[in-house]
Amino acid sequence: MDHCPPPMPSAEAFELALSLLGQDGISLEQAEQAMLEAGVEYGPMRRLLVWLPEAFGLALVGHMEGVALPRTFAARDADAQEHTFAFDCEPLFASAVRRALQVYHEGPRAQFKAVAQRSSTMDAVNTALFAEVDLRGATLSGPQLLDIPAETYLRGTDTTQVG
Predict the structure, then answer these.
(1) Scanning 17, 35, 110, 149, which has the fewest C-beta atoms within 10 Å of its C-beta?
(2) Model pTM score
(3) Residue 150 gets which letter from DSSP?
């Protein structure tokens, strides 16, 4: 199967997701509900709520000395087969990383922290650091998407389903 990127979510949906994720008091479920109520379709909404935190987390880890960043991510298809994709298969990722680096360097820092701490990558790094693991020389593995099916990237259509 060909790898074909899904369409980029709208700029308005991107900004709404970033605003919601950047607030400490907003749960993921509340962010999801607010985006659905604003008319954002389920598939793009899930991609935004997954990829913004991952991009922010990777932007932060990228500032750590000696840690190699991943170049791929994984997702499972309807038959539970795992597929690996380069980050450029998700157009949202590059935009999210650019925004993450902008917010990291220019602020607001509270928003950066709120979004990055939702990342599974940051969770793994924090767990390792808490266990006093030296990460210098480590290579991180990319995110394993649980809520976004591989078909999203295999066909180039956003087939994210509820559940």
Answers:
(1) 110
(2) 0.88
(3) T
